[in-house]
């Protein structure tokens, strides 16, 4: 029997409708009790890329999507978001505004079904994604920063994108920078490229910015660049050649 299951809303179809009722396109049919065409790994990569594209459409308002239910504590000066209840692959936390909102440690930690997150709070703790299974992170236009200036997700990210109207951050090919690209904040560890050249405009590599990149073999850095503590957290079993230009 041929069937497909939407990775976003989990709806199952006996025949592929191409576009799910939730708006997700790119559904992949599979034959029950048989390996997927192209192998499970290749299908998994294709599905994750489709989830990332879908999340970008939601981020820019091209697809209407119901925000995630979140648990909040309200204070006079800010609203604290501790956790969220979400069974879909994409979680949308959109609570930026006045008073400011802060995503704290453990956001989504208890729900392992979420693979992509749109985070549009004002700020987030460094360990806001502690123990989560998120592979795609998208930062909204209102996101202002991480509370201690560091970003250290539990699970290696594959895709990372910042809304083009964000005045504080920018992203380029799944690498996170400050808006002026003088500080490299995070290199997605699951980027498939074997070599990466840090732009000459970058003056600082943030702490944990290169945390055990799985496929990276050669890293080129501008001469005189400043490395914060643990900026290069590399795997000793998979050495990386560091060159300066």
Biggest sheet details: 5 strands, mixed
**Structural class label:** mainly beta
Overall shape: it is globular
Catalogue the unreliable spans: none
The helix content is under 10%
Rounded to the nearest angstrom, the radius of gyration is: 19 Å
- Name the helix and strand elements from N-terminus to C-terminus, one letter apiece: EEEHEEEEEEEEEEEEEEEEEEE
Helical element count? 1
Mean pLDDT: 89
Taken as a percent bin, the fraction of beta residues is 25-35%
Keywords:
245 residues, five-stranded mixed sheet
What does this structure look like?
Among the domains are: 2-59, no CATH class; 172-245. The chain is 8% helix and 31% strand. It has 1 helix and 22 strands. It has one helix spanning 40-59; strands at residues 2-5, 12-13, 30-31, 69-74, 79-85, 90-93, 101-103, 116-119, 123-124, 136-139, 145-146, 159-162, 169-171, 175-178, 183-187, 195-197, 204-205, 210-211, 218-221, 226-227, 232-233, 241-244. The strands form 6 sheets. The protein has a 5-stranded mixed sheet, with no helix packed on it. A hairpin with a 3-residue loop joins strand 13 and strand 14 (175-178). The chain starts with a strand and ends with a strand.
Which SSEs are present, and which pair or pack?
Elements (H helix, E strand, L loop, with lengths): L1 E4 L6 E2 L16 E2 L8 H20 L9 E6 L4 E7 L4 E4 L7 E3 L12 E4 L3 E2 L11 E4 L5 E2 L12 E4 L6 E3 L3 E4 L4 E5 L7 E3 L6 E2 L4 E2 L6 E4 L4 E2 L4 E2 L7 E4 L1
Parallel strand pairs: 5-7, 6-8, 7-9, 8-10, 9-11, 10-12, 15-17, 16-19, 17-20, 18-21, 19-22
Antiparallel strand pairs: 1-2, 1-3, 4-5, 13-14, 14-15
């Amino acid at each position: 029997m041929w069937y497909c299951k939407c990775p976003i809303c989990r709806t199952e179809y006996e025949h592929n409708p191409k576009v799910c009722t939730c708006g997700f396109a790119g559904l992949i049919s599979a034959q029950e009790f048989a390996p997927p065409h192209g192998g499970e790994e290749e299908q998994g990569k294709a599905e994750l890329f489709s989830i990332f594209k879908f999340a970008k459409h939601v981020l820019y308002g091209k697809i209407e999507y119901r925000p995630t239910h979140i648990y909040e504590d309200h204070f006079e000066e800010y609203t604290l978001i501790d956790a969220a209840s979400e069974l879909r692959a994409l979680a949308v936390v959109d609570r930026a505004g006045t008073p400011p909102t802060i995503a704290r440690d453990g956001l989504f930690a208890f729900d392992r079904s979420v693979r992509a997150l749109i985070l549009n709070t004002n700020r987030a703790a460094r360990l806001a994604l502690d123990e989560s299974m998120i592979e795609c992170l998208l930062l909204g236009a209102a996101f202002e920063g991480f509370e201690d200036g560091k970003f250290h997700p539990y699970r290696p990210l594959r895709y990372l994108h910042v809304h083009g109207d964000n005045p504080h951050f920018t992203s380029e090919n799944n690498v996170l920078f400050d808006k002026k690209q003088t500080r490299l904040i995070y290199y997605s560890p699951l980027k498939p490229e074997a070599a990466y050249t840090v732009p000459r405009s970058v003056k600082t590599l943030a702490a944990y910015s290169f945390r055990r990149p799985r496929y990276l073999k050669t890293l080129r850095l501008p001469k005189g660049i400043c490395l914060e503590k643990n900026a290069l957290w590399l795997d000793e079993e998979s050495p990386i050649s560091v060159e300066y230009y």
